[in-house]
Amino acid sequence: MASLIDAIDVKRKMYFELEGVPYHCLDKEISTPTARGGQTLVRLKMRNLLTRAVFDKTFKADDKFKEPDLEDVEATYLYNDADGAYFLDQTSFETLQLSNEMLGDALEFLLEGTAVQIEKFEGNPIGLQLPMHVELTVKETEPGFKGDTATGTTSKPATMETGLVMRVPSFVKEGDKIKIATEGREFAGRM
Predict the structure, then answer these.
(1) Could you give the C-alpha distances from 38 to 7, 57, 59, 104, 182, in angstroms and in order?
(2) Which of 116, 150, 154, 177 is packed most tightly, with the most Cβ within 10 A?
């Protein structure tokens, strides 16, 4: 049997299960009562891992949560269609599908063969973790001009091969392969 976690013991970035749904704790506040006999309350900012919704909820300190049956598996991106995206599990070699709702904007960072971590709950895929950095080729951007930095224009919009539009330094040109930090959608270097 899975061990139980008291609400007071839940920490930031911890996973727990409530009413059959896995959650990720994003933040925690404890309010201790000033009156005698008052109950300590724990307010959790949490993300539902199935719907990706984020909300706050208050619990009693001794409320219990189960540890969720979560698993991360290494996979590579294969392709996508109207039903979602398909990945190859690198351990079992089975094809895993994630719906477009589960993916969010992750497809903007994925090329065929990109390695990702697929999150599974009770054996079913529920989401993915992108690598920290991806390398993409600039498909379209305006040329940079000498003196751009004098006018304060140090970045410009660029469209990547996947359709991702982001700001890049003015020295980046079409055809350049650049490194992108996936979490902040930021330019991380030229290859």
Answers:
(1) 16, 19, 14, 42, 45
(2) 116
CATH of domain 133-190: 2.40.50.140
Identity of residue 23:
Y
CATH annotation of 70-129: 2.40.50.140
DSSP at 34: S
CA 142 to CA 137: how far, in whole Å?
Answer: 14
C-alpha 73/C-alpha 164 separation (Å) is 26
State how far the Cα of 19 lies from the Cα of 142, in Å rounded to an integer. Answer: 52
Model pTM? 0.77
What is the CATH code of the structural domain delimited by 4-66? 2.30.30.30
> Tens-of-pLDDT digits for all 191 residues of the chain?
457 999 999 999 899 999 999 999 999 999 988 777 788 999 999 999 988 899 999 999 999 999 999 999 999 999 999 999 999 999 999 999 999 888 888 999 999 999 999 999 999 999 899 999 999 999 999 887 555 555 555 789 999 999 999 999 988 999 999 999 998 899 999 88
